[in-house]
Design goal:
This protein is mainly beta. The chain is 8% helix and 23% strand. It is built from 1 helix and 5 strands; from the N terminus they run H-E-E-E-E-E.
């Protein structure tokens, strides 16, 4: 799925961000625990087409710590 399109798409229910699950060809909304299918490269953003996802199976995206306020900038 196109990266630009992924930046525009949000969950149709909560308007939260989605994560593209390449292995299952789905767009995941971690907040609602729903996975929306991607068929023939087209996201099917209908609640009745989404499947429920086990909350234990959702892996949160990595969080990078912010630099300390007085830390020097490094390239």
């Amino acid at each position: 799925m196109d990266t630009r399109l992924m930046q525009l798409l949000v969950c149709p229910i909560c308007k939260g961000p989605l994560t593209h699950l390449h292995d299952t060809r789905e767009l995941l909304c971690p907040a609602d625990r729903l996975a929306f299918p991607v068929r023939d490269g087209i996201a099917v953003m209908l609640e009745n087409e989404a499947r429920s996802v086990d909350p234990d199976a959702i892996v949160p995206p990595p969080v990078f710590p912010a630099p300390a306020p007085n830390a020097p900038n490094t390239p």
